[in-house]
Amino acid sequence: MHEYKRPLYSHIRSIVIDHDDADDVLQNTFVKVFQFLSGFKGESKLFSWMYRIATNEAITFLNQKARKSGIGSEALQSKMVENLQADIHYDGSEIELKLQKAVALLPEKQQLVFKMKYYQEMKYEDISDVLGTSVGALKASYHHAVKKIEEYVKGN
User: Which residues are in the RNA polymerase sigma-70 region domain (predicted)?
Assistant: First the structure.
């Protein structure tokens, strides 16, 4: 738990954005990891298995939050990024905030791929294990995400 707490928190926070929400999702992730550890067959790396659980928990959390708010997940993402400036745990610059806004506009899969590659500096092979997508498709998603982000940054 100690070894994975920080990287999992960082990954979850990049998805759910809010610090308190990330703590809640991290706690749920570790509960599921311990709950299902006996069923881990070792077909993938423990790291990948835990990241897959964390990713699924974060996405489920966002979908539930959007449903409770009565808005779509894209609108929720934009709203969360707007609230980021008021978050005492956020210490990013204006450029980082603009990047967050651009990423929030991406489709969910491109967001995940971009965040794992850019923020967590994960290898495509590891992202492939986590998301269950081919390396080629991930490279294409990342490329499209970067192009869309560049266009947003240039235009805003």
Answer: 2-67
